[in-house]
Each structure stands twice: as C-alpha cells, then as structure tokens.
TrEMBL record:
InterPro entries: ATPase_AAA_core (IPR003959), N-DRC_Component (IPR052267), P-loop_NTPase (IPR027417). It holds the Pfam family AAA. Residues 424-435 have a biased composition (Basic residues). Signal peptide: none annotated. This is IQ motif containing with AAA domain 1. It comes from the Eukaryota. Residues 420-439 are annotated as: Disordered. Residues 522-638 form the ATPase AAA-type core domain. The gene is IQCA1. It comes from Gopherus evgoodei (Goodes thornscrub tortoise). The lineage of its organism: Eukaryota, Metazoa, Chordata, Craniata, Vertebrata. CDD domains: RecA-like_IQCA1. Keywords: ATP-binding, Nucleotide-binding.
C-alpha cells in the first residue's frame, strides 16, 4: 500500500498519456503514408513546390518530435520507452535529412516558413527544436564523476580558480555599523542646513508667520492629486490586464500547480530509474533461464534442420555442400533468400532516407504489441516478462546457432571423409587489405592522457549554459523579403535552431549521428559579443560533451615541432573519441588559414593546424561523435578556399534586431537580479541600443546593477536612463560591417561549391 501511495501521482494519468501517444501515432502514420505515396509520383521540377513539400514535412515532423520527446520523458514502462526511443531517434534523423535537402535546394542554411505556418495555423514556437531531456538525464552519474575528476586535477595542478577571500564576520559588522552612523549623521546635518536656509530666506523677504488657510489649501491640492494619480494608475493597470498586455497579479506568484508538477517530475524520474534497473536485471535472469530450459531443444531442432539440408543436397547434386563460413552468416545463410535490387527513377525525388525504415519498424512494433494489449494487471507499469522472453529467445537461438555451426562443420567434414573419401579442402580466409588503425603505443592510458590534457589547458571545463539562454525572436518577414529578392539577415532564433540541428541532436544520440547527414565541422561567424562562445558552451552543456580548446593562442608554445604537434592532435582526438561526445573548439579560426600572418603573431605560429586539420577531419567516421567548432569575428582575413573546405557548415550570427533586443534587455536584467517595473521603459532601451550586441547589453546591465544598486531597488526602481551611459561607452556594430559579413558569407558559399 505504501508503494502505491508514494508513486501514484506520477502514473495517475495513463489515459492522458495514451491519448497523446494515439494522436502522435496517427500523425506519424499519415506522414509515413504520404512519404510512401510521394516515392511513386513523377519527379517535380518546380523549385517552389519542392520547397513547400519539404518544409511541410519538416514542420509536421518537428511537431511529432515535440510530442514524442514529452511522452518519452513522462512514460515509466521500460519496454515502451525502448520502442518510443527508437521512433524518437528516427524522427530526429528524418528532420536532419529534410533540413539537408532544403539546404541543397536553396543553397542557404536559413529557411523561412511564415506562409506555411500561417496556412497551418501555427506559431513559430511550434517549430522550435526541443532538446531531448534524456541526453543529460541518462548519464547524470557519469557527468558528475567527470566533474569531480576534472576539479581534482585542476586543484592538484594549481589551475583551479582562486575563490575570493571571505571577510571575517566582525569586520563586516563594523563596516555596516560605521556606514549606518555616517548616513544618519549626513541626514541630520542636511536637516539642520535646510532649516537654517529657510530661516535666512524668511528674514531677507520679511515674510510673516505662515498662512494656515493657504497651507491647508496646498495640502488638499497635493493629497487630491496624489489620490487621483493612484486611481488612474490602478485603472490603467486593470485596462492593460483586460487587453492582455500585462499578466494578472496571480501570475506573479509561484503557482501551486507548478510546485506540484516539479514534485511529480522528481518522483517520475525515481520510478523510471527503478524500473530500468529491474528491467536490466530481468534481461540477464530471463536469458539465463531460457538458455537452461529451452537451450537443449533449440540446439536439437537446429541440428535436425541442418542435417536435413545435407541430405537434400546429396540427393539433388550427388555430393555434400560446402558449409557457409562465419563471414557469410553460417547456417543462417542456408535458409536466407536474396531479393533483387530495385532500379531508381531519374529526376528529382525525395532522397532515400536512412530513418524511414526505423520509424516504420518502431511504429508497427508499438502498434502490434501495445495498442491492443490488456495492461490492467500492470498498474505500476513494470516490465513485461513475456516480451523479454520473445526478445531473448532470438538471442539465445543465435548463440546456440554459432555453437551448432562448429559442431555441424565437423560433422559435415566427417561425412565427406566417410562417403566421398575426399580430403577436406581447407579454404583460406582472405584478410582485408587495408592497414589497421591502432592506437599509438605511447604506453599511456586514457586517464593519464585526460590528466595531461587538463594540465596543459587543452581540455577545459565548459560553462553551464543552456541553449534556451540564447534569447532571441523569430524573423516574421523572411519569406516576404525573399519574394522581392532581398536576402534577410537571419534572426537569433534561426541561429539557435541550427545549433540544435547540426550540433546538439547528432552529438546527443549515437543512432542519429551514425545515419544522419554527417557534419564534422561547424563555423560560427559574427562580430564581437553576439554569443559565439556561449553557443559552444551550450553545445557541451546540453549534450554532456567534453570541451577541447585548440585555438591558436592556446596551443602556442605547447608540444613544439612537427612530431609534438602530431602527438598533441593524437592525444586530443584519442581522448575525444573514447569519451565522446566531444567538442573541439578553435577560437579565432581564421588565424589557422591566414592569407598573410601579421608580424606581431609570427611567434605564435597560428597556422600550425592548417595541414593537419583536413586530414584529421577526413579520419572522423560516422560512429565518432566529435564535432569541430570554429568561431571567428574576421572570416575575411582567411584564405577562403581551404577555410571553406574544412568548415562546410558556416553560420552567420547577426547582431540582434529590435524584437530580439526587447526580449534580451528584459531577460538580462532579470538574470542579473534586477526587476522590470513600469518605471523601466524596455521599448526605449531596445530602440536606443540598435547596433549593439548581446555582449554590449550584458556589460551595460552588469555595470549598472551593482550590489549597492540592487539593495536600493525596492525604494528606487530602475529607469532606462541609468543604462545609457554605460552603453554609450561602447562601440556598436554598424550596418556596413554587418553587410561585410553577409557578402563574405556569399563568397564562402561559392568557394565551398568550387571546393
């Protein structure tokens, strides 16, 4: 009874989960059916129609992705989670494939769906790529252990950040008391000064005593004006709430429903973890039981089938057959049937997908097993032993088949010797001709290499930043501008979407990375302060990836010479592959491909990686979840052809537009402890800060919101004028500079096509 009482809340809504799954499955069935139908259609030649088709598929798959991610996070049944996970990864991969097709069609990384969203009655929030929560949840223990090891290495090597020395408590009290006495004395002296000033003015003007009627009238005017002002403010606030411009007062308080939902989520995670542990134990125990009970019968049945094959071949050909070797599949090859390859039609069609079969298999499996299954007995949503038996029976059969193959090969050999009187012709197994890539015999373990890279500053601790912290608004004029042949500047939301698609989804899922269009290197280009480094750290935070720093300034003087460079790269990429996912960050990426190295930087040898980087990228395979991310604020200083050959995905990060600045000011002020009141005109700040980047806004806010100013905020609300002086001390990014980035990005795209 206690178990049911404690964990009833997280699993008390199975009907709601079932309804969500049903709707998602219906939508997925419709999409899969439509994709099958599109394969039989004639090739399309109209580019606009093709893009509309791809974009519609993309938007609908993103909606299914959001629903499946929510279902996977909330469901507690371990076997259902496995099937949903398979479909979820298939949908993620299909989204990446559709995105790749749109990029090849339009020769642009940025796409705008304003008209399609309007037709489908959707808002931009509906196509926001969610970050699957299981990326981090399923390896929390590993990440915590890695953080402890990293902190220990940094502390032992003296590289740990020095914490500020704490001031003794008595000294703090003394400082506060002296400051309080000073403020009281200053107030007292001011009152004395003002009293003396009034007396002097009265003597000079010859004013007699105060007129009581005039004083009373003045007090009435002030009081009535004040009360009327309060009423007007209240009426204006009620009107704004009625129009939906301001949230109601109850929205400012912490909701009991939110607190309850957080409690439910915590309990649900506990249930999921416990059910997963029980399921993993059951996999081992049930498999062992099957091997002991059903193993002998399976072995005997397989031997009878293979002996029957021997006899049939003898009767048909007059001799015994050759037994298939292990590379050919052993006895499984005896009964397999080959299907003829199908020819593909010429012309543009939807490219073949690696993920459609995965989605179809998972979808059919869920439909066949779970849709009509009676689960009234399984209220706690624990594992189903019968399904485990069906799954493990195949594994046991395969293991026994390998043993039977060895026995039957020997039996066939004896038959040939006894009946045909022929010596067994031993076939030589051909070895594959390529050279085996083995780890260098440097005598070092991964732990020792990890420690060395941390001590050398090549492996660094990423900052804890979420992708959702990269705040920005959607561009609502993208389609309209393209229709009149004007290429719009991408919005911050577009940039955030691409980081999720090209970085987070492939790094977070091994299945997606292996079969989706492979992105080995990514370049983030834009002026100073637009958040390039923040996005690199967000990549690592959302996927739990290691962060390696191979910037020219960081590797200067480390591992000198050609052999030293090769050793460094070998160590970095060996650890990156072993402890994947990993992000290799190259700051100021243009320096590696300088047209001409400046004299001031010749000692740093910025072009050390120029020859080795393309070779290393070529050696990265689909199973290696390693992403090279370059950041640059001066891409025009690089030699574009080799530069674009390495970085095949180049993302321009612009300065924020008005809508993004409006959201940014609000977000950054709240993030730094400020409060947004009626006295603070955010719209004015957003307008005045045109041309300034996120970094400029952060600097302005942090300069104003000192500890002293935060303490005064209750009595003295923030105003827009306070931020202007710190903003004016910085240089904005002018429109001409931004246009230079745009033009260079076009040149880079052309150079990439030539390369």
């Amino acid at each position: 009874m206690l178990l049911k009482h404690n964990f009833k809340t997280p699993i008390s809504k199975p009907a709601l989960q079932a309804e969500t799954i049903k709707k998602t499955q219906e939508a997925l069935n419709g999409l899969l059916q439509r994709e099958i139908e599109d394969k039989s259609l004639k090739p399309q030649k109209d580019r606009i129609t093709v893009f509309q088709t791809l974009a519609t598929f993309y938007i609908k798959y993103v909606q299914i992705f959001c629903n499946l991610e929510t279902v996977y996070d909330q469901i507690v049944h371990p076997q259902k989670r496995l099937v949903i996970r398979q479909v979820l990864e298939g949908v993620m991969g299909r989204i990446l494939e559709l995105k790749n097709e749109m990029v090849e069609l339009e020769n642009s990384e940025f796409h705008y769906f304003d008209d399609i969203l309007q037709d489908l009655k959707l808002s931009p929030e509906h196509i926001e790529i969610p970050i699957p929560r299981y990326f981090i949840k399923e390896k929390v223990k590993v990440l915590r252990e890695r953080e402890k090891i990293l902190a220990q290495i940094l502390m032992n090597s003296g590289l740990q950040d020095i914490k500020p020395v704490s001031i003794p408590g008595a000294l703090v009290i003394q400082i506060s008391e002296r400051a309080r006495q000073g403020r009281l004395r200053a107030t007292f002296m001011k009152q004395i000064y003002l009293e003396e000033k009034r007396e002097r003015q009265a003597r000079l003007q010859g004013v007699k005593g105060p007129n009581l009627d005039a004083a009373a009238l003045h007090i009435q005017k002030v009081w009535r004006g004040f009360t009327q002002w309060k009423k007007t403010v209240k009426m204006r606030e009620e009107e704004m709430i009625f129009l939906g411009m301001n949230p109601p007062p109850q929205f400012q308080r912490i909701s009991a429903s939110v607190a309850r939902a957080q409690n439910v989520e915590t309990k649900r995670c506990e249930v999921q973890g416990r059910h997963e542990t029980e399921y993993e134990k059951a996999l081992v125990s049930i498999k062992t039981h099957l091997r002991e009970i059903e193993g002998p019968d399976i072995k005997e049945s397989l031997q009878d089938q293979i002996r029957q094959w021997f006899i049939e071949c003898w009767h048909i050909t007059g001799k015994f057959p050759d037994y298939p070797n292990e590379e050919e599949g052993g006895s499984t090859a005896i009964f397999s049937q080959k299907t003829p390859d199908q020819e593909e039609e010429e012309g543009w069609k939807m490219a073949p997908s690696n993920f459609l079969p995965i989605m179809e298999e998972g979808n059919n499996q869920y439909k066949d097993i779970w849709q009509n299954r009676d689960e009234r007995w399984n209220f706690l949503q624990e594992y189903d032993p019968e399904l485990i038996k069906e799954e493990k029976r195949k594994e046991v059969e395969e293991e026994i088949r390998v043993q039977v193959d060895e026995l039957m090969r020997q039996e066939l050999k004896n038959l040939k010797l006894a009946v045909d009187r022929e010596k067994d012709k031993k076939r030589k197994k051909g070895k594959k001709g390529g050279k085996k890539v083995s780890a260098a015999k440097d005598g070092k373990t991964i732990d020792s290499l990890y420690k060395e890279l941390v001590e050398e500053g090549l492996l660094i601790k990423p900052k804890t930043v979420k992708l959702s912290d990269y705040v920005g608004e959607y561009s609502y004029l993208g389609t309209t501008l393209r229709q009149v042949d004007i290429e719009p500047m991408p919005s911050l939301t577009d940039v955030r979407q691409l980081i999720a698609l090209y970085g987070i989804l492939p790094l977070g899922s091994q299945a997606v990375h292996e079969k989706a269009p492979l992105v080995k290197a990514l370049l983030l280009a834009g002026p100073t302060g637009v958040g390039k480094k923040m996005l690199v750290h967000a990549l690592c935070t959302e996927t739990g990836a290691n962060l390696f720093n191979l910037s020219a300034s960081n590797i200067a003087g480390k591992y000198p010479g050609k052999s030293g460079l090769q050793m460094m790269l070998h160590m970095v990429f060996k650890v990156a592959k072993q402890l994947q996912p990993s992000v290799i960050w190259i700051g100021d990426a243009e320096k590696t491909f300088y047209k001409k190295v400046p004299k001031s930087e010749k000692e740093m040898e910025p072009k050390r990686l120029k020859k080795n980087l393309p070779k290393i990228l070529k050696s990265l395979k689909a199973e290696d979840r390693v992403l090279v991310v370059g950041t640059t604020q001066r891409p025009f200083d690089a030699d574009l052809r080799p530069f674009c050959k390495v970085y095949k995905k180049i993302l321009l990060i612009p300065r924020p537009d008005y809508a993004s600045r409006f959201v940014l000011w609000k977000h950054i002020i709240l993030q730094n402890g400020g409060a947004v009141t009626k006295s603070l005109n955010i719209s004015c700040l957003a307008k005045v800060s045109d041309g300034f980047t996120q970094g400029h806004i952060v600097y302005a806010v942090q300069t104003v919101l000192s500890e002293r100013r935060l303490r005064q905020m209750t009595n003295k609300p923030l105003t827009a004028a306070e931020f202007l002086s710190s903003l004016a001390r910085q240089d904005p990014v002018y429109k001409e500079e931004e246009e230079t980035y745009k033009v260079n990005l076009r040149y880079a795209t052309s150079a990439r096509r030539i390369a």
